[in-house]
C-alpha cells in the first residue's frame, strides 16, 4: 500500500508542478490578471502524463511488483482453500 501512496502523491505533485508552470507561462505571455481554468488544466494533464512515463518509471515498477506479490499471495490462498474444500468433498 505504501507504493500506491508514493506513486499517487508523485503523480499529483507532478500535475501541480505542471499546472503551476503552464499557468505561470500563460500569465507572463498574456499579461492577464487571471488564468482561465480549462486550457492550462488540459495542457498540464498532458504534460504530467507524458512526464510521468519517464520520471516515475521506477515508482510505477515498484507499485506493479507490490500488486503482483499481493495477487500471487491471494491466488495461493484461494488455491489452498479450494484444495482443502476438494479434500472434504471426497
Note down, in words, how this protein is organized.
The protein is built from 3 helices and no strands. Helix 1 (2-30) packs antiparallel against helix 3. The chain starts with a helix and ends with a helix. The protein has one domain (2-89). It is rod-shaped. The model has no long low-confidence stretch (mean pLDDT 89). The chain has 90 residues and is an all-alpha fold.
Major sheet description? none
Rg on CA atoms, Å: 22 Å
Distance between the termini: 39 Å
The sequence of SSEs as H and E is: HHH
Shape field: rod-shaped
Q: Kindly state the number of beta strands.
A: 0
Flag low-confidence runs. none
Discrete helix count: 3
Share of helix, binned:
over 70%
Proportion of strand residues: under 5%
Structural class: mainly alpha
The structural domain count equals 1
Overall pLDDT confidence: 89
Task: Summarize this entry quickly.
The protein contains three helices and no strands. The protein has 90 residues and is mostly helical.
Question: Which helices and strands occur, and which strands form pairs?
Answer:
Blueprint lengths: L1 H29 L7 H18 L1 H33 L1
Features:
3 helices; 0% strand; rod-shaped; 90 residues; mainly alpha
Amino acid at each position: 500500500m505504501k507504493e500506491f501512496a508514493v506513486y499517487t502523491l508523485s503523480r499529483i505533485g507532478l500535475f501541480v508542478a505542471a499546472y503551476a508552470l503552464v499557468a505561470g507561462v500563460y500569465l507572463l505571455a498574456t499579461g492577464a490578471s487571471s488564468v482561465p481554468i480549462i486550457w492550462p488544466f488540459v495542457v498540464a494533464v498532458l504534460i504530467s502524463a507524458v512526464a510521468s512515463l519517464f520520471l516515475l518509471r521506477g515508482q510505477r515498477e515498484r507499485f506493479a511488483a507490490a500488486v503482483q506479490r499481493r495477487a500471487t499471495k491471494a491466488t495461493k490462498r484461494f488455491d489452498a482453500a479450494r484444495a482443502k474444500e476438494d479434500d472434504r468433498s471426497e
